[in-house]
């Protein structure tokens, strides 16, 4: 019934029980998990993990946090692996890519160079992008629009105007555990008021745990592990917030996700 559009299943937090985590997600009604790469060193890891687990797909990309260390050879290798993966039905997108202006002293120029190179790859292969947009919503949307690509703005927490600009550019907005906190006023407003056609669900596991896994505060809970199974409860919270049935949300979220990531259509159960 549910799709986790963004889960770092390869993270070390899952090393001891990864198979159990996937089984628990499926048991909770999470039929599919999209696993994005973050750097050249985990391209093969993500691909292998996904092929070992039913109901999973993967994206290839270089996360902005790793952009400063990414060489031009890494970008060449990314393009090579994307080209080689196009016949793999479980390969569905370019990601996680984008810009991050939250952490100080990052090399903005290199972030931009790596980001734009990956947008060109996405455009070349007609693939959607899974976008990291932390404190960079306007810059990411502008670059993506110029490149002519679409996809998902992951963990979206910008303003209503920025949200509408992304949607007008053909993007879906990813909502996960953050909106479940009562103090997350802006994200909760977006989750409640944006057109339902704009919304997809995610966890960003093992990060961004929802309120029921953390203290009753809106803050990052160090050591609190999120898992893809939580998409089911996140969906319930979304349905309650919007005053809609869980069945209607499930159908719309599935439709939205396929619109954002068309290659998923052949992988999802009917």
From TrEMBL:
Q: What keyword terms does UniProt attach to this protein?
A: Hydrolase
Q: Which InterPro entries match?
A: DNase_TatD-rel_CS, Metal_Hydrolase, TatD-like
Keyword Ion transport annotated: no
Lineage: superkingdom: Bacteria
Q: Is this entry keyworded Phosphoprotein?
A: no
**What is one Pfam family matched by this protein?**
TatD_DNase
UniProt GO molecular function: hydrolase activity
- Family to which this protein belongs: Belongs to the metallo-dependent hydrolases superfamily. TatD-type hydrolase family.
Could you identify this protein by its name?
TatD family hydrolase
Its organism's taxonomic lineage begins at:
Bacteria, Pseudomonadati, Pseudomonadota, Betaproteobacteria, Burkholderiales
């Amino acid at each position: 019934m549910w799709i986790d559009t963004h889960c770092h299943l390869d993270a070390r937090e899952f090393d001891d029980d990864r198979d159990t985590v996937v089984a628990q997600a499926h048991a909770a009604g999470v039929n599919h998990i999209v696993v994005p790469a973050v750097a050249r060193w985990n391209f093969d890891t993500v691909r292998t993990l996904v092929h070992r687990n039913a109901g999973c797909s993967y994206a290839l990309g270089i996360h902005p946090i790793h952009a400063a260390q990414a060489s031009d050879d890494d970008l060449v290798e990314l393009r090579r692996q994307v080209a080689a993966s196009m016949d793999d039905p479980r390969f569905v997108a370019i990601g996680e890519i984008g810009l991050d202006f939250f952490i100080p002293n990052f090399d903005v120029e290199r972030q931009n160079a790596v980001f734009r190179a990956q947008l060109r790859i996405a455009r070349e292969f007609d693939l959607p992008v899974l976008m990291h947009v932390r404190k960079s919503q306007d810059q990411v949307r502008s670059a993506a629009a110029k490149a002519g690509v679409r996809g998902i703005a992951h963990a979206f927490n910008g303003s209503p105007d920025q949200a509408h600009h992304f949607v007008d550019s053909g993007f879906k907005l990813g909502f996960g555990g953050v909106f479940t906190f009562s103090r997350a006023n802006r994200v909760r407003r977006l989750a409640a008021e944006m057109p339902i056609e704009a919304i997809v669900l995610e966890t960003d596991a093992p990060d961004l745990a929802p309120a029921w896994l953390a203290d009753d505060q809106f803050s990052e809970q160090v050591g609190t592990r999120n898992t893809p199974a939580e998409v089911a409860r996140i969906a319930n919270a979304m349905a309650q917030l919007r005053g809609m049935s869980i069945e209607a949300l499930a159908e719309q979220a599935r439709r939205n996700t396929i619109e954002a990531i068309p290659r998923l259509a052949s992988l999802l159960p009917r």
